[in-house]
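agent> call fold_tool(seq_1)
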Amino acid sequence: MIPKPGSAATRARRSRSGDPGPRRRLPSASSPRRSSLARTRGRASCRRSHRAVTPLILPIFPLPDLTFFPHTLLPLHIFEARYRAMVTDVLPRDKRLALVGLKPGYEQSYAGKPPVYPVAGVGEIVKWERLANGRYNILLRGDARARIEREVPTDTLYRVVAARRLDETPPTRDVGPLIERVRTQCRRLLAALGRPSELLDEALKEGQAPGAIADQIASAVLPDPVLRQQLLETLDVETRLQRLVGALDDLVRQITGRRDPDERAR
């Protein structure tokens, strides 16, 4: 008598012979089970990604013609009531705020919410003094760049934003010649202006990251606020250095009234 498929005898025979029996077919990529699993994993991945890019919630200090770079120190005298309130609020917390440039035409709405540039400098108050009249003298240390994503509703006198930290892109090749060009042009500028040659030694000292040198020189030397803002928004360090060198070349030419011989040779 031949056992029927699926009977106890058939299952026992397969067990003794090592035959696993009929195999279950795995769900295909288009099967409901596989699609459901993919959707679940996708949602989990999105949740992890969302957690990884949680925005910074920062008060902003908008100022005209001023660019706040990482790797720099910025002394400020705080006298407006709304920004005195801002400093009073952040000091017992993390002491952090974003300083952002005001776009041209801000005068008409300065007392309200004038338009600001999308990229700001983020820093920490490292020194402060509260004066008898309620004003503050503070020293900000620049820590990072951040892109403003949206303004956060608040009942404070000052504005608050959600922002995303921006990381710079390090050079992939040797930028030593660009750094040396920056040093050379800074020395020429100081000589043309009759300023001490060691004035920028701290910003140009050896051992610093190329991006830090670019930020400090742009902050200390370049007079054009629009150009400074462009360099703040330039995340690629090599490109930032190239633009800085071009700006320094132009500045030397304007001040000395002649073209640099090294520039003609290039």
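agent> call fold_tool(seq_2)
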Amino acid sequence: MRVLTSSAQHLVLQLRPWSLWLFGGAFTLFGLLPALLIAEVATLECHRTAQPPSCELSRAGLLKNDRHLILLDHFQGVEVQESRSDDSSTYRVVLLTSEGDRPLTGYYSSGYAGKARQARQIDAFLTDLSQTQLVIQQDSRWLGYLFTLIFSGSGLLVLCLMGNVVTCEFDKLGQSFKLTRRGLLGSKIIKHPLHHIQTVHLETSHGSKGSTTYRVALDLKNGDRLPITTYYSSGRKDKQKTADQISAFLGLTTSTPLSLWNLDLREFLRLLTGGQQVRQQSIVRYRETLEREPGNLQTQMNLIAALWLEGQRDEAIATVEDLKSSLTAQGKAGEAAKLDDYFQTVMDKAPDTK
């Protein structure tokens, strides 16, 4: 979140979700393409008794209304064209004439059998002089509108539900807190006395494929938890920074859940597979970081994992105990208790090589 105002008495933070706006807007605009390009009614109407005998090919859609007159003696045949991708094929019927090829539709679609049946009907009319009339129509409006509904609808949902401008205002003079979420569906304002805020919490959500997302929430003294945003998103560092800014202004602590995912998964895999030299260099780097930032929880947990993986297990255990004591002294007894679970997870993940 961006800092709009920061003073001893007033803190205003604001989130403008540009990435969600771009994503939702792109999906919404992209979703319009099927309605514009695919949704059409293609009609081939042939009359042998007309003067001259001819067929009219028309395609009507939102942006087009094309009509082409083809004389019967200009026909050279009909075929089903195929468009191949890596794992599938799509098809369309093409009229072969002396003036060039005329596709029945402006797009390829699945279903070879239906296209082949249309091609046989056209070929039968061209060769059977007793047939005086032929009408073939292909209506793809429902398909185009369905794709538009899915893609544009998804984009609009993102914009409406997640695209809010979020503003947090903490006022020590007025002893008030105001959270404003303003979006396409209107604005929602939540107010609380400032002293109702007990802690600032960094919430995590774990995906089924191992991904982790975060959001900042305020724990109130009545037991309620008020999330700043209604959704979780990636970027732990930014969320942690916001939580720390609020905590520092209010003189509170930031509650950070402990789990394996507080250790950057890429960093853990690097430590696990990088060999002795990588782990030893990482241990030195972690310790240098902790000299500058002794309260950096993630670096402390990275150090614990690196020490354990490198076989310096007594030191890893001692570091865990020191961190538990530090968390307890900060009034974070619950998190100190969770540290044992985290450490057990690290031990379970580590190969027993030493």
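agent> summarizing second result for user.
The chain is about 40% helix and 30% strand. The chain has three domains: 2-17+164-257, 40-139, 261-349.
agent> awaiting next instruction.
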